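REQUEST
  id: r-88c1
  op: predict_structure
  target: RING-type E3 ubiquitin transferase
  payload:
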Amino acid sequence: DQVAEGRLGPSTVVLDHTSGFEGLLLVDDDLLGVIGHSNFGSIRATTCVYKGKWIYEVLISSQGLMQIGWCTLSCRFNQEEGVGDTPDSYAYDGNRVRKWNVTTTNYGKEGKLVEKDTSMWQLQGEPTVLITLAHIFNYFAPLMCKVYLVEDVLMTFLLSILERGGAVEAHPLIQQLLDLMWLLMEEYEVHECLKQLLMSLLRAYRFSPIIPDLGLQVSCISKSTGIFNVLDYLFDVLRSVVFFYIKSPLRVEEAGLQELIPTTWWPNRFTKEGKESKEVKEESAEERLRRRAYERGCQRLKKRIEVVEGLQVQILKLLLNNKDRGGGEASRYIFLNKFRKFLQENASNRGNLTVLCPPEYMVCFLHRLIAALRFFWDGHKAKTPATLSSEAYVPPQLFYNGKVDYFDLQRLGGLLSHLKKTLKDDLAAKANVLIDPAELQAVTMDDLDEDEESAMSAAQRPSAALAIGGALARPGWLSSPTLGRANRFLSTAAVSLMNPRRPLGTLEKIKVRTLSVEQRTEEDIEGSHGNEGLLLGRPPEEPEQPITENSLLEVLDGIVMMYNLSVHQQLGKMVGVSDDVNEYAMALKDTEEKISRCPKRRRDIHEELLKSQKVFSEKLNHLSRRLAWINVTIYSKEKMQDIYWLLRVCIRTIEHGDRTGSLFAFMPEFYLSVAMNSYSALKNYFSPVNSMEELPGYEETLMRLAAILAKHFADSRIVGTDIRDSLMQALASYVCYPHSLRAVERIPEEQRISMMKNLLAPYEQRPWAQTNWILVRLWRGCGFGYRYTRLPHLLKTKPEDASLPSLQKPCPSTLLQRHMADLLRSDRDLAPSFLNSVLNQLNWAFSEFIGMIQEIQQAAERLERNFVDSRQLKVCATCFDLSVSLLRVLEMTVTLAPEIFLDWNRPSSELLLRRLAQLLNQVLNRVTAERNLFDRVVNLRLPGLESVDHYPILVAVTGILVRLLVDTDVQGAERATAVLLADPCFQLRSIQYLLGHAEPSALAAAPAAAEKRHFSLHTYTDYISTEELVKVDKMLSHLSEESKQAAATTLPTSEEDLCPICYAHPISAIFRPCSHKSCKACINQHLMNNKDCFFCKATITGVDDFTKPSSS
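RESPONSE
  id: r-88c1
  status: 200
  body:
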């Protein structure tokens, strides 16, 4: 044999049994085998190498502790130190998976070198190669953690392998490389290297330029999917959510949209339900061709984007796989914990934009996650008798059994700690759940400083671990390093006392206590052997058979939370592009009309108009292509169906939670918020591209959501003012539109009556303004002159101003009006309390309005220019609008149930009528007086006070008077007339003002002010019918005649016969037992709040009629 350079010794290598060994060793006759019989014997071979690369092979025939390696000639061994234990030797220990050179460190994976049956390692027969690789990795491992090497070398190498096509399993070289990394690198080095690999993949995808076929995005995601297939634990939701975003091009040219959509088109006018829509001209043949070409371009774009979306869903399918344990934890449960932390990070830092997931990323992530979830949900249904994803919901026990962490998010019933204390008996009775007494004694996290929190968390962790069978927390490298601390009082619970799966008796309670997210195991989520996992504490209303895998329920819950965190706001934000298209289209149309009207001699103006036309056209071409991208990625039909599915999930979840009674208070507020917001998004954001009416089950969904709003806007189990206001606003919006109003009318009659009863509750000590708006919207279209969509007085002064405030089209509900009338007639206590509260609020609102316009007038009259605060103007306008709406509710009540005021057999009818007449006279006198304060402020035409004018408030008052004096029986008209004329504030000229009849003093000055036009209902014939005007004329004639007769028959009253309280009416009542006197109106109103006499403070036991005896 030729002697190789760098080697000394015989050609055949054998064991050196003559020198260099230590301990009791039994060497075979052929000097090729050795057995150790002492504590730690060592032996060399007969060959030395000093240059080049060399390997040798050893067959290990037994188990136990042993080290194998290299040593120098000067190395000395003893019973305690063998190869690797001295400075002159190096060894590897496969039993303990460590490398040795005096000191020791972790190295490789157990069994990779020494186990014969290892399935993953492909180089078992060549351990000498591995020893050589160990030396190589010893030098190169630190470099593998450098971002520039990972991105330029490692990622390029991996992607070059995947470029050959086929599944990842077809490329064993990737698996071999990963095995080598785990075997020959330190654990922290592996994790750092793989983390940098993930970040490199993210950057490659995020900064890939957009080309027409999206090929770079498709290629990057395909390769990333392959790497995630074997490195799924690398997925960090906080960072990797970038993979699910399809960025919008900054420039149309960048994405090649001009080639995809060569022809642009935009609608002439966006028409949305509720807005006044002009007649749309019939589409011309040219416009039709442009629209169809534009739609074909949009379809081409959609097909290319769908390829990317499909690959993104594949990544999530890998991460949600629960069948890939391989001796460790399945991907789905790793993903669940990271996903929950991702939600916590975004929920806890909503004000800190730097650490939040961008909302545009969140929108795309939501849609891909819904697609992956429904895939696994329906796949589970195919194997078990579970529920389809189309009927999915979140069971109510997730909200109170503590298994799912909701951080510091508000519950419907308030703070979780408060609910645990107040509803602990209900939890025990309805769900067989006992709260750990330590939980009830705990204070909130805000009362603890950081040191106390850390100490308490550390003290509680061992006991919590015992509750789940000794499971330890997940290693820190699996968690996002940027996540904040969790609230331990709102974290997950663990089951400490588990019973076999059988019906729980009244004495068999399950005791729960808090447990951090990191300590949860698969068993805590899915359950096993009688442990129901996330479904612990099932109420009797819920089915025994689980509707799907528990882990999918937690994913679904997280999807709902994601929508609430930022998805809804982003959907609303992107609507701005379609609004821009509409504005530019209107500007272009206006410019073209000006060009057609421009005189030929004015070439300068014509050229400027042509330049404007060109700018608007170019901008519209750009926006229409950008709108196509947005409609495909955000507002497509498929995305609309996802949001609709989410709405139905929330509706079913709320319905199931409502059945649990008092435990409904544990539901997080965001479920109701998402139900309301997702419906709003479907109605407002996806039109006119897609219509909600085309969705399956649209009518039923509207009705079920209407039932939720009608029942819960006054639900005593809901205590949060914000969510109660949101429910009220949603219901107010619901009754504005014909489709949703009809849905309210289709809910069960019992629920409709209950809703109306809650709306008619007294206005004191609650947000009455929103309730009042709802009643007004049920009445609009039925009141006197109350059929307008734009304020008539503004249309008279600015008929072409498109920016004028507009109202919804009237859509009154006669069915709900009938329920209201029945309630007011049948409940004798409800009507007085409701109407007195309405009258009180009207008195307050109108008084506030008068006080504010006085301040505005004083500021306007000063010599120095004082600008009125815009906030003050807004409050002033709001008080005026509230006064008008309260008057409309009174008109509604008088019309539907006039006997409440006119049937004096009812206890409070006369008092209510007198109070009503008093307020109506005050309003009329303030508004109709010549050259009064109201007139002067209206004539200022201040911005912000556009709604303040004579028409809205005077027609409301007129409607009430006409109903009391004309549209009633003779007895009722007589009573109303008598009360109205008896009020000392009544002035006939206020009624004459309504029809434009000026006062005599004003007639004398008419020639000097001929140019001033007086208010008259006759000038609003477009809004007031001829029949209504006839009734006003009849009312004026009636009051004129009655006031003359009253003046002729009324005898002068001495001062001593007048009521000593109001000095307006004669004394008509005497009190028992003190015999003091006043008029009936004063004492009746006083007795509503106080039972003491005005004068002597004695308790009044009764009131009798008083008639002054005739003098003899």
